[in-house]
Amino acid sequence: MSIMVPSKTPAALITTAPYPYTPGPASPGRQALDSALHQLDQAAGHLGLDDGLRTMLATPRRSLTVSVPVRREDGRLDVVQGFRVQHNVSRGPAKGGLRFHPATDIHEVTALAMWMTWKCALVGIPYGGAKGGVAVDPAALSTREKERLTRRYVSEILPLIGPEKDIPAPDVGTDEQTMAWIMDTYSVSAGYSVPGVVTGKPMTLGGSLGRAGATSRGVQIAALAALGRSPEGVTVAVQGFGKVGGPAAQYLADAGCKVVAVSDATGAVHRAGGLDISRLRAWVAETGGVRGFAEAEELTHDELIELDVDVLVPAALEGVITEANAPRVRARLIVEGANGPTTPGADEILAANGTTVVPDILANAGGVIVSYLEWVQNMQAYAWSSGEIELKLRDLMLGAFAEVSALAAERGLSLRQAAHVIGVGRVAEAHQMRGLYP
Ligand code: GLU
């Protein structure tokens, strides 16, 4: 069936965003998408982009929802929803993580894909942005159930992914093992090994040195650059002591900072004299969470966010710093290890209170930077040393940090606004140079 396009398209059809963003009860995912669209709108305003291009950039190029049947250990069949969104592919293949989380939805995945687009453009790596999600609690699944779920999800999105098309990676609730299953499922279907289809793989399957701690290393680099003074004795609170926050706390402590509080799903702990991060990580490995760590006092999650520290590192999920708690945030510097932890309303309050925010698309870019290095190594069938990886990561992080700071100072923007102006601007330029087909 062909679609008839009237020769004179009514204006309303042009100005109404064609993508069906459904209004309705504001899910956390919908709020994340609203934040992402607000940030895009601000950047588009600074760049003077026309309405057509704004709509293009506000709209994912491809968005797939799949039903994933999973056979449970007791023989039952469960069906969960999965998503893969390719927000933009104008600068290269789509790139972005895969999240397993019960609250994920198409809106959240779209927001996360959009942030990936700006992040890759900002740090100058040749990718567009993507994200995947499966609405499931991985902690409720056995390893074999997780494997079946991952393989079936991958087979449902198989036509979309590939080393030249879209390259998944770990995100919340997924890890090296998940990536190994994805690589295997894709390779079995291709008939040969395709390591470049995912990043964040185990070393034995073509993973890269430095990838596991890359996001956290990037957070450390960004935090130290933003501090602009000796880290000795600088107090830090880390919200989310997981894959990103755990090693980030360690790297900051190694640099001389005093990590005084951390939290995870089990609770929050505080020690004014500084926590022993290695001992705390050993405790978490043994017990499954920070709660009950003997060398610290307990805190509530809210108390951690509002703690009087120099640096706050939100390193878990979106929407933790909001208009409701931003007035009580006392940290002088916020370094976003998570994607989207601060809402636009909170951003305004923090800016008015003189709090500097190093935004997610800059602060947590270390992960996708080393993913890119992993993919380049896979495409060349060659491996770099950890020293080479570390050097390239630092170069790209510090280069982007310098560009963002310079633009922010020149135009009187926040670091987030400047980062978005650069990221969105590069993608807009790619669109303009390529032109529109047909
Ligand atoms: N999930 C990470 C992020 O949000 C890494 C993505 C990647 O390496 O492709 O940046």
Task: Report what the structure shows.
With 438 residues, this protein is of the alpha/beta class. The chain folds into 3 domains: 1-59, no CATH class; 61-193, 3-Layer(aba) Sandwich (Rossmann fold), CATH 3.40.50.10860; 214-363, NAD(P)-binding Rossmann-like Domain (Rossmann fold, 3-Layer(aba) Sandwich), CATH 3.40.50. It has helices at residues 11-15, 28-47, 51-58, 106-122, 143-157, 176-190, 214-227, 245-254, 277-287, 301-305, 344-352, 360-363, 366-380, 386-411, 415-434, and strands at residues 62-71, 77-88, 94-95, 98-100, 128-134, 166-167, 235-239, 258-264, 267-270, 297-299, 311-314, 333-335, 356-358. The strands form 2 sheets. The chain has a 7-stranded mixed beta sheet, with helices on both faces. Strands 1, 2, 3, 4, 5 and 6 form a 6-stranded mixed beta sheet that branches. Strand 1 and strand 2 form a beta hairpin. The protein starts with 10 loop residues before the first helix and ends with a helix. The model is unreliable at 1-18 (pLDDT under 50). Bound molecules: glutamic acid (GLU). Glutamic acid binds at residues 95-97, 169, 171, 199, 339, 364, 367-368, 371. Glutamic acid (GLU) binds at residues 95-97, 169, 171, 199, 339, 364, 367-368, 371.
